[in-house]
Design goal:
- The chain is α/β, with parallel strands linked by helices.
- The chain is built from 7 helices and 11 strands.
- It has 2 domains: about 20-150 and about 220-260, Vaccinia Virus protein VP39 (Rossmann fold, 3-Layer(aba) Sandwich), CATH 3.40.50.150; about 155-215, Single Sheet (N-terminal domain of TfIIb), CATH 2.20.25.110.
- The longest helix is centred in the N-terminal third of the chain and has 14 residues, at about 25-40.
- Pfam families: Methyltransf_25.
- This is Methyltransferase family protein.
- InterPro entries: Methyltransf_25, SAM-dependent_MTases_sf.
């Protein structure tokens, strides 16, 4: 992204985000996250979904009995999340806030942040601030569970790749550029979204939108150091969706952190 940060990361894309993410096995991801929460004794109570996007995982966890709060900096994403809330009837509180300076009304039993939301924080000092806020708002026995894309994924899987997908109502071209020295992955998105009003006459009219996004790669060691510097305790790290230790070819890593010192 053009240092577009998490604040403006999704605007036009919000309208079609769920369409293009329908190949993500959210139920499997949710089951994995739910298993981690239970493993650390978080079976109910308040849970914050940080960088909740359109609320898919927020809804999943609400369905598992948690009292959910969703925080995201995209008004467009939250509008869609609130539409889902109306459909489900779940009592979810959504807050439009920047995760680098989020504020809650009290503490929560757990904080989760998945789908590489934290990779959008491209400055380590700012990520440390996110961790400080997490430490501030966690219950004494609370846990913070998050995932992040690895440098291996940006360098070997995404970098310098073009991904294109076409659907009936929309299509996209997604160009990736990984700048190894800066450790920044730039996404250039070209979106073609059907204009329902203009397409009523029989012609298919599409509007083109362009967005630029940036994510930063972090190593597991860097994440540990930032957590400790923010006052959190590192508890565990897993190769995503397993209970195996991360390896050099891990594409996504999950970290579990606890509040403060024991």
């Amino acid at each position: 992204m053009e240092n577009t940060n998490e604040s403006s990361a999704y605007s036009s894309f919000a309208a079609v985000y769920d369409t293009f993410m329908d190949n993500v096995p959210y139920d499997e991801w949710g089951d994995y996250l739910y298993g981690l929460l239970k493993e650390y004794g978080i079976c109910d109570g308040l849970v914050l979904d940080l960088g909740c996007g359109t609320g898919t995982m927020t809804e999943y966890l609400a369905g598992r009995g948690y009292d959910m709060i969703g925080v995201d900096n995209s008004e467009d994403m939250l509008e869609i999340a609130m539409e889902k809330r109306v459909e489900s009837g779940h009592d979810i509180l959504y807050l439009e806030q920047d995760m680098r300076e989020f504020e809650l009304y009290g503490t929560v039993r757990a904080i989760v942040s998945i789908c590489d939301s934290l990779n959008y924080i491209t400055e380590p000092e700012e990520l440390k601030q996110v961790f400080r806020w997490a430490d501030n708002y966690l219950d004494p026995d609370g846990v913070f569970i998050f995932d992040f894309n690895t440098e291996y994924k940006y360098r070997e899987i995404l970098g310098d790749q073009t991904i294109a997908e076409s659907r009936e109502e929309c299509s996209f071209i997604w160009d990736n550029y990984y700048y190894e020295e800066e450790r920044i992955n730039e996404y250039e998105l070209s979106l073609f979204i059907r204009d329902e009003e203009l397409s009523k006459g029989g012609s298919e009219i599409y509007r083109r939108y362009q967005e630029t996004h940036y994510q930063r790669s972090y190593t597991l060691e860097e994440m540990k150091e930032l957590l400790l510097a923010a006052g959190l305790r590192f508890l565990a790290a897993y190769d995503a969706f397993t209970r195996e230790a991360p390896s050099e070819t891990s594409e996504r890593i999950y970290i579990i952190a606890g509040k403060g010192e024991e």
